[in-house]
Specification:
Bound molecules: flavin-adenine dinucleotide
Mean pLDDT: 95
Number of strands: 22
Shape: globular
Radius of gyration: 20 Å
Strand content: 15-25%
Largest sheet: 5 strands, parallel
Length: 423
């Protein structure tokens, strides 16, 4: 059984591992020269309900990537406003660890390989085609998984944001994102709120070397530094740019919140550089990602696949999806859990077995079906969903799904008969 995964972000890596564990021959295709996609610049996990989702996956035997992020954490169990028991993986060293792990699992990885077309026959994909560097390439498979994300290309960032901010996805160098679902002729869904189409990414990174010694020391010791924004500067910046659903708390309005993810992760979509440099400790500040973090950030959540709760894309028999492609799900954890299910179900499809649908008694199962249902409504398309805050975390708490007790979570998974299902 050959499974082809297109897009090597967290979702694609998780899908590849899950399918390989089911005995499939897996090929993972990534447009750039590195895996992890936007995960190359994130780092926060295990915060709020992400802790529960992570432990559910570990109990279900799908914890491979969480073991790696745990091992590669710079800080564990830290708290920043609204986000207790958070871990921060080291974004500077995460990718090679994941790549080695995938290779150990027998996944064939093709980097600098951008897929730009599909060949279909009788409602199924037969092959995907594209370019590896200058060479034309074609990959045949029994089942395919679209994990191409929703960020970029630059035209999207120009049309709906402040232009290409030169982010880690490096579209001008490697070519922009191409959606496999769209290439199959499936009409995709678009996240929108009022006049805003899609959403701007919510954090930037600064070089630690460009910050004051005091800030750097605090980051090393505590993992987080909270620096009040002087009142006269608050007037200078348009504070609405700081709005990001799970961080829409007063603390983020009055302070600059910086996290140590290897670099200094600044919890705002963008912040004008000249103004930033007026804040004590930031006099020499320099952006590491996006390079134009003083002006804007990437635009995401345009082009999501209509899918069912097994993560099969509607109207294409052998196409599954995960991560941001599977809906308005924000985060590495969210990408890994959906990736794992999509990889597992693609392998089941190959074996002609019924797909697994995770029950609503588990946070992961509930989130997958809740987000799908929400996206059928105009209002639902205006929000984003994450285990880590806002609407979906509120729902987890209301439904009694949130827990930070691994034994309790294990027991819940066991009661559903799902212990070790992904092993
Ligand atoms: C700046 C920033 C900071 C963030 N911080 C955090 C954080 O701290 N914690 C957290 O949980 N979440 C964070 N997020 C969100 C999180 O990174 C994403 O929601 C999640 O990682 C998405 O994973 P994905 O695999 O679905 O998509 P992506 O990460 O977008 O990966 C998609 C991959 O597909 C590739 N691709 C696209 N088209 C093709 C094609 N045609 N052929 C081959 N390859 C293709 C892309 O190059 C990319 O590598 C952050 C996001 C951003 C942008």
């Amino acid at each position: 059984m050959n499974i082809v995964v297109i897009g090597g972000g967290w979702a694609g890596c998780a899908a590849a591992i899950a399918a390989a564990k089911q005995g499939a021959k897996v090929t993972l295709l990534e447009r750039t020269d590195s895996l992890l996609g936007t995960g190359l610049v994130g780092g926060i996990f295990r915060n709020n309900g992400r802790f529960t989702a992570t432990e559910e996956m570990i109990a279900m035997g799908g914890g491979d990537l969480f073991h790696l992020t745990d091992q590669n954490s710079l800080h564990r169990g830290i708290e920043f406003p609204g986000h207790p028991h958070s871990s921060l993986y080291n974004v500077a060293t995460m990718e090679p660890l994941v790549k080695r792990y995938l290779l150990e699992k027998g996944v064939e990885i093709h980097l600098s390989t951008r897929i730009d077309d599909v060949e279909m026959k009788e409602g199924k994909i037969r092959s995907v085609t594209g370019k590896k560097g200058e060479e034309k390439v074609r990959f045949f498979g029994d089942a395919f998984i679209d994990t191409t994300g929703t960020a970029g290309p630059p035209g999207q960032c120009s049309k709906y944001g402040n232009g290409c901010a030169m982010c880690i996805l490096r579209c001008p160098t490697f070519g922009g994102r191409v959606s496999i679902t769209a290439k199959c002729g499936v009409t995709e869904m678009i996240g929108r709120k009022g006049a805003q189409v899609g959403a701007m990414s919510g954090s930037c990174k600064l070089f630690k070397e460009s910050l004051s010694r005091e800030i750097v020391d605090t980051l090393a010791k505590r993992g987080v530094a909270i620096i009040p924004i002087p009142a006269h500067i608050q007037n200078e910046v348009e504070l609405s740019i700081k709005a990001c659903q799970q961080y829409a708390l007063p603390e983020y309005h009055d302070n600059l919140i910086i996290l140590d993810s290897g670099h200094a992760k600044l919890m705002v979509p963008f912040f004008p550089l000249e103004t930033l440099r007026k804040i004590p400790g930031f006099e020499n500040a320099r952006y590491e990602d996006p390079y134009a973090g003083g002006l804007g950030n990437s635009i995401r959540y345009i082009g999501m696949a209509p899918r069912d709760d097994s993560l099969k894309v509607k109207d294409v028999e052998n196409l599954f999806c995960a991560g941001e492609k599977a809906g308005l799900l924000v985060g590495h954890t969210e990408a890994i859990v959906t990736g794992t299910l999509a990889g597992y179900n693609a392998a089941r499809w190959g074996k002609k077995e019924n797909p697994l649908i995770l029950p609503a008694a588990l946070a992961v199962g509930d989130a997958i079906s809740y987000v799908r249902a929400q996206m059928d409504t105009e209002e639902g398309l205006g929000y984003k969903y994450t285990f880590s805050g806002s609407i979906y975390f509120d729902r987890m708490k209301q439904k009694g799904l949130y827990s930070t007790d691994p034994q309790k979570i294990q027991k819940r998974v066991d009661q559903e008969g799902l212990t070790g299902i992904f092993s």
